[in-house]
Design goal:
Helix 1 packs across helix 2. A hairpin with a 2-residue loop joins strand 1 and strand 2. The longest helix has 22 residues. This protein is mainly alpha-helical. The protein contains three helices and two strands; from the N terminus they run αααββ. The chain has a two-stranded antiparallel ribbon. The chain is elongated, with a radius of gyration of 30 Å.
């Protein structure tokens, strides 16, 4: 059996479950105040989560190529091509206010 890398979680016996002491330790590290009832309930719930993760970890993926998405993605955007725009006079004529060939907007910072 090989030694797990520091980035891998060590395997745990799925039938062992989490002890109340494990949950209390995690709660202390997370600075959570848990009641006795919460410790019992969370031990079962977190144990079920870890069992599910362990089950996924046992899946045979030897022939599965690594992916970043479940389905292939393609770029659906059009090419970035420069095209003529509307003339400045036409655009400024439709603006609520214009001044010196620019849009006039309300002052928001109080600067000159």
């Amino acid at each position: 059996m090989s030694t797990p890398s520091p980035h891998e979680a060590p395997e745990r016996d799925a039938s062992a479950g989490l002890r109340r002491e494990d949950i209390a330790h995690l709660a202390r590290l997370s600075r959570l105040a848990l009641t006795e009832e919460e410790l019992d309930r969370f031990a079962g719930q977190l144990g079920a989560v870890l069992d599910a993760v362990a089950q996924v970890g046992r899946a045979d993926v030897a022939d599965v190529a690594p992916t970043t998405h479940a389905v292939p993605l393609t770029n659906v955007l059009r090419e970035d091509v420069a095209t003529p725009s509307l003339p400045r006079d036409v655009v400024l004529a439709a603006a609520p206010a214009a001044e010196d060939d620019r849009f006039r907007v309300p002052r928001i910072l109080g600067e000159d």
